[in-house]
Design goal:
The chain is about 50% helix and about 0% strand. With about 500 residues, it is mainly alpha-helical. The chain has a two-stranded antiparallel sheet with strand order 1-2. A hairpin with a 2-residue loop joins strand 1 and strand 2. Helix 5 packs parallel to helix 7, helix 14 runs antiparallel to helix 15 and helix 17 runs antiparallel to helix 18. Its main location: nucleus. GO terms for molecular function: DNA-binding transcription factor activity, RNA polymerase II-specific; transcription cis-regulatory region binding; zinc ion binding.
Length: about 500
């Protein structure tokens, strides 16, 4: 047989022919409105009605979570989280210049806003990003945070960051003038993201103004709700800021634990498994309970700096001792896998390697232990702000534990985010220890590309503190120095 004789060439299959030909499994010439085969056989030529394109030019298609790709003048984000079904969100006002920042926020920034490497099903990806499709304030707040973070490595992103920040401020003011927008998650989310922008990018202390604005919005909505991820996020920023800025929390009470009057089933908000690697909520529940002591310490520190506090040192000491006793009793009741975790847990022999969620959970346990030790240092500093702690004291042991945790924490994965406040307090506790200073300096000035938050202002404060202590051979109060500098340092706890 001659080459190719009796062999039909393959016919490319398409799904663009008329429905009549496709049902008969024959090739259609796709002539419209009636193809030649249907015309010849007097069949009714039926065509599928194409749905209107849901992605007009310039729009951005965003399934929940994942990576973003340019396509047809827009972008497509492939879902990476198994906890939710992907869906499409349009951003009609997005242009090509904003796509890298939108991508960076969704794929990176949202994973480090509240917890380290929170990459699966976190509510910033799942709930907040879709709201930005209809909220210019939230949309530009997201872009400002992303551009501001990228500017730390590439200064060319600084101008777009400032522009998006200014636009977000203008749009937020417009939203605040509309009563229907005051209770929306998009308005509250925009306010919180502008706070994050000021914390992570600006050298000013405007983060507190935005945080107060978020507080006002939460109270307008009826008060904080434990089922609301934005309220949880606010509480983290509030307590962290209160510890380092010399004030008490902006909302009274343990509102991150207490269920408000509006926290009912009717809100249709399910329990958040957040972050995804916190199996059984051991980490979140423990940290939220530790936040109670953090809040009490921040209020006591603020009181001790007032004229009343300075004239009543015994009262301050008694309150501190009460907090210390409660903290010690509470810590003994914590799960043993967290409380008794070894700093060498990464090197311990195991029958099988830890999975990624198990590994991240263990890292979060180390972070909580660092924060608990930071509370011990903070408490003693309120009582003896200029006292040098001897070797073997509770404060010295707490500082050494923090330094050991930091020393053994791998770099380059954003894990320093959970050690910022602990490292700062260890820096406050040490005196004439250049080796510890070098470690703290390295950890607090780690690669800014792997975390949203940084400790630039905190490290600047420590450098001045260490220099003066070396020069004067005196222990100084970092809070007095912060007031002298006229700044309100934010350190994520």
């Amino acid at each position: 047989m001659a080459p190719g004789a009796g062999v039909k060439p393959p016919v490319p299959r398409t799904r663009t022919g008329c429905l009549t030909c496709r049902q008969g499994k024959v090739k259609c010439d796709e002539e419209k409105p009636t193809c030649q085969r249907c015309r010849r056989l007097h069949f009714e030529c039926m065509w599928a009605v194409p749905p209107p394109s849901p992605h007009p030019p310039g729009s951005v298609r965003v399934p929940r979570g994942g990576r973003i790709e340019l396509a047809d003048g827009g972008a497509v984000v492939q879902s990476c989280g198994p906890l939710k079904q992907p869906f499409v969100v349009e951003f009609p006002k997005a242009d090509r210049a904003s796509l890298p920042y939108l991508s960076h926020f969704i794929t990176f920034c949202s994973r480090f806003l509240a917890y380290t490497n929170d990459g699966q099903g976190n509510p910033f990806q799942q709930e907040l990003v879709p709201l930005a499709a209809s909220s210019s304030a939230l949309f530009h707040s997201m872009l400002a945070v992303a551009a501001g973070h990228m500017a730390r490595l590439e200064p060319r992103h600084t101008l777009p960051a400032v522009q998006h920040y200014s636009t977000a401020l203008r749009e937020l003011n417009i939203a605040l003038s509309e009563p229907t927008q005051l209770s929306s998650n998009s308005t509250l989310g925009a306010c919180l993201l502008l706070c994050v922008y000021e914390i992570s990018h600006s050298e000013k202390s405007l983060w507190l103004q935005h945080l107060r604005g978020a507080r006002d919005l939460i109270m307008y909505r009826g008060g904080p709700r434990t089922s609301d991820f934005l309220c949880r996020f606010f509480s983290l920023l509030d307590i962290s800021g209160s510890l380092s800025s010399g004030r008490g929390p902006l909302i009274q009470g343990n509102y991150w634990l207490e269920v408000g009057k509006l926290s009912s089933v009717s809100l249709n908000q399910s329990h958040l498994n957040w972050p995804y690697y916190d199996d059984g909520s051991v980490m979140v529940d423990t940290f939220h309970e530790l936040m109670v002591y953090m809040a009490n310490l921040s209020k006591l520190s603020a009181l001790s700096m007032t004229k009343f506090g300075r004239h009543n040192p015994r009262l301050i000491r008694d309150k501190a001792m009460s907090i210390q006793q409660g903290l010690h009793q509470w810590w003994t009741s914590r799960p043993t896998e967290l409380r008794d975790q070894s700093n060498d847990w990464r090197c311990q022999p195991r029958s099988k390697p830890l999975t990624e969620p198990e590994l991240l959970e263990q890292e979060s346990f180390s972070s909580i232990r660092s924060c608990k030790n930071a509370c011990i240092i903070y408490l003693q500093h309120i009582i003896h702000p200029t006292g040098i702690q001897p070797q073997g004291s509770e404060v010295a042991l707490a500082a050494e534990s923090i330094l050991d945790i930091a020393r053994k924490t791998p770099e380059g994965f954003g894990l320093e985010m959970g050690l910022i406040w602990g490292m700062f307090m260890a820096g406050v506790a040490i005196f004439h220890d250049t080796e510890a200073e070098a470690l703290i300096r390295r950890k607090l000035s780690s690669d800014a590309s792997i975390s949203i938050y940084h400790a630039d202002r905190g490290l600047e404060l420590l450098e001045i503190l260490w220099e003066r202590q070396h020069r004067l051979n005196l222990k100084l109060d970092w809070r007095e120095l912060q007031n002298e500098m006229g700044v309100q340092v934010f350190l994520l706890a």
